Amino acid sequence: MLLPDSAERLELLQQTGKLIDEYYQQLETLPVAPKVRSSEIRQFLQDYDFEQSHDLKQVLDTTYRALRDWGMKVAHPGYYGLFNPAPSYAGVLADLLAAALNPQAGAWHHQPFGVEMERHVIKYFAGRFGLPVETAYGNFTTGGSEANSTGVLLALTRQLPEFTRRGLRAAAGQPVFYCSEEFHHSFEKIAHSCGLGRDAVRTIATDSDFRMIVSQLEQAINRDRELGHLPFMVVATAGTTNAGIIDPLAEIAAVCRQQQLHLHVDAAWGGAVILSDKLKSCLAGIEHADTITFDAHKLLSVPMAAGLLISREARWLADTFHVETAYVPESSEVGMDNYRLSLQFSRRLIGLKLFMTLASAGRQGYAETIEHQVAMAEYLAGRLVQHDWRLAIAPSLAIVCFADQQAGALASEQLAAHQAAIVAAVVDSGRAWISVTRIAGQPVIRVCVTSYLTRRRHVDELLQLLNQARAGLAVQG
Ligand SMILES: Cc1ncc(COP(=O)(O)O)c(C=O)c1O
Questions:
Q1: Of the residues 92, 103, 263, 364, which has the fewest C-beta atoms closer than 10 A?
Q2: Ramachandran class of 393: left when φ > 0, alpha when ψ lies in -120 to 50, beta otherwise
């Protein structure tokens, strides 16, 4: 019932291949953002009461169309979005293989190749980041949130060895950690879920370039110590979600060294540039990190979900996640069971899509793709300035944040509404997806070159859409 015969399997795979190919052939002509109401989708789902079975070919076809028509086309060259990439084709094939063979990557003895392959990839990136390859290790996660969560747990366990058994009762004061005010929101949820509470997240002001002010970090740590709190970690962001800003990593590392604090670098998005000899210098200082969050499903363009947490010392992972069970057979390879090194037990072979993409594109191929995305952002920034848009900040890697120069006289809330209307008109055209955000409280329009398929002509089209939307508002206004 669950496994069709060989001829049918081949037919279904051929059908899947054709649908995927149709998708990529049509992609540029499809509207980027869906226009649908929940009632329409719920009506469609009424056909599936699960009492009556359906022909798989028909299920495949209709599900594909529903996903296509009622979802954001993140691979579209006009999707300038929230880091969700156009997936590498090697990554798509890897995910298919991983689903078909269903390797359990939690234990070495279940999938020796898979675990060794992931180890190879983790060690490779540890080396690129400048961590000691001999001692460094890590694990693939569902994404940056889980990787950040792992980093916090490692840091807590390092600083408070009793935390493993006694939890936060082992602390003689309130443990606190530090991020810039441009930090990723996952840390609030993490602080909550590991029992620290959201007040444990100390946000440090940023300078005019939106980078953490290191002198304020030091002051905050000293103040907290005087109050009897227990600083245990600093999070430096290498590629903020808003604007791609990279905190001063080397200076923050020096503070961590002096204050004996764990340094976690959240390089979920920006870490990818470590593959580019041209761009990697912007990550200088990352080699001092104790733990690094680094997502393959962002700027490395592998299909979701693929995060990575790299730890300077493998033993910190073992100290944090060690468990004994009678029901999992011992592996012959000591220290290689992922379930004893990470939050997950049963888990997908996440690293395969990164391995296959890296193996087929090569580092140079990857570097060129990333450099291309950065070049497209720089091209857009130049064109925007020529057309009377104001850059809120110089473009950082592949992100451009800007405001309408012509609306400069508007008060902040009016400017926010005005720019939201421009963005809505661009999205409504179906030709591009961009968004609004705030940097240091100021409303800006955010464009991130997320799809490696974006070319100059797409950027020109986006500029045209922005100019038209602005002109349309001026006429109405
Ligand atoms: C800097 C940063 N850290 C962490 C995350 C969380 O990653 P994920 O969405 O994979 O959980 C994001 C997501 O955009 C991010 O931008």
A1: 364
A2: beta
Q: Where are the domains of the chain?
A: 104-347, 359-476
CA of 30 to the centre of ligand 1 (A): 27
Nearest to residue 434, comparing CAs of 6, 33, 9? 33
Which of 120-147 are b and which e, b meaning 16 or more Cβ less than 10 Å from the residue's Cβ?
ebbbebbebbbbeeeebbbbbbbbbbbb
The amino acid sitting at 438 is R
How many CA atoms does the CB half-sphere of 251 hold within 13 Å?
A: 12
Question: Distance (Å, rounded) from C-alpha 179 to C-alpha 359?
Answer: 35
Are 469 and 99 in contact, with CB atoms under 8 Å apart?
no
The fold for domain 104-347 equals Aspartate Aminotransferase; domain 2 (3.40.640)
Residue 253: closest CA among 274, 235, 231: 235
Q: 407 C-alpha to center of ligand 1: Å?
A: 32
Residues near ligand 1 (Cβ within 6 A): 83, 143-145, 148, 184, 186, 237, 239, 241, 266, 268-269, 295, 307
Sheet holding 262-266, edge to edge: 137-141, 307-311, 291-293, 262-266, 230-237, 175-180, 201-204
Taking only the tens place, the pLDDT of each residue in 295-321 is 999 999 999 999 999 999 999 999 999
Cross-strand partners of 204 = 180
Q: Where are the beta strands (DSSP E) in 82-200?
A: 137-141, 175-180
pLDDT digits (tens, 9 = 90+) for 444-461: 999 999 999 999 999 999
Tell how far the Cα of 183 is from the centroid of ligand 1, in angstroms. 10
Length of the chain in terms of residues written: 477
* Contact predicate 202/232, CB 8 Å: no
pLDDT category of residue 294 using cuts at 50, 70 and 90: very high
Higher pLDDT, 7 or 474: 7
DSSP label at residue 53: -
How far are the Cα atoms of 129, 148, 460 from residue 333, in angstroms, in the given order? 26, 27, 55
pLDDT tens digits, 61-107: 999 999 999 999 999 999 999 999 999 999 999 999 999 999 999 99
In angstroms, rounded to a whole number, what is the distance separating the alpha carbons of residues 285 and 277? 15
pLDDT in tens, 161-173: 899 999 999 899 9
